[in-house]
Design brief:
It is a single chain. By secondary structure, this protein is mostly beta strands. A seven-stranded mixed sheet has the order 2-1-5-6-7-8-9. The N and C termini lie far apart (61 Å). The chain has three helices and ten strands.
């Protein structure tokens, strides 16, 4: 049973049939909210432990969540913030790099069109996503928004030395004696092009 909070009355709402197993992983719980069941005053999800394991990566953990769902006709506005502990490979040395990620949610969910194969999005539609069969999977939404908040090039630490270009060793761990190889002459044209483009 998942505990949610009525936004305006500040009283708990219990959704007994909200949780079921994911088709991806039998152990992965899924929180489904039916759009017609969202009260007019809105719905808030604030209990991270009640959501269970919402991430496909078992190393990721949801620490805090404060998500509000408000309905406007068939559109659902999802706003709030979440905090998660994640682990990525360092962009320089490829070692696991644990970090905390904070994601701000501001998404409009609309029913998926049934007839059009291609939907053209306007600039105002960049924060629009779709839902099917009057159901919103909160876990999948949290997973997607956390992934979008990840840094483009994570680092295990400031000043990571990365991998040796010659032997491939982690230069944070071992001091290799490898000499830098001269650049491949076949790449000289690319180097020349890069220098011209940078000026």
């Amino acid at each position: 049973m998942v505990k949610c909070l009525d936004l305006y009355a500040k009283r708990p709402i219990y959704w007994p049939d909200l949780s079921k197993n994911s088709f991806v992983d039998e152990e992965l719980a899924v929180m489904i909210v039916r759009v017609p069941d969202i009260p007019a005053e809105g719905l808030s999800v604030t209990d991270a432990t009640a959501l269970g394991s919402v991430y496909r990566d078992p190393a990721w953990r949801l620490l805090d969540v404060n998500v509000k769902l408000e309905r406007d006709g068939s559109d659902v506005f999802v706003t709030g913030e979440l905090r998660a502990a994640v682990s990525q490979a360092c962009g320089r040395c490829l070692e696991p790099s644990p970090a905390e990620v904070t994601a701000t949610l501001d998404v409009r969910l609309v029913p998926r069109p049934t007839t059009a194969d291609n939907v053209e999005l306007a600039p105002d539609d960049l924060d629009v996503d779709f839902y099917d069969r009057d159901e919103i999977d909160i876990g999948a939404l949290i997973d997607a928004e956390t992934t979008l908040a990840l840094p483009m090039k994570p680092l295990c630490r400031e000043g990571c030395l990365g991998l040796c270009r010659v032997c491939g060793g982690n230069r944070n761990v071992v001091q290799c004696e490898c000499r830098e190889r001269p650049p491949d002459p076949r790449l000289a044209a690319l180097k020349d092009l890069a220098s011209r483009l940078s000026h």
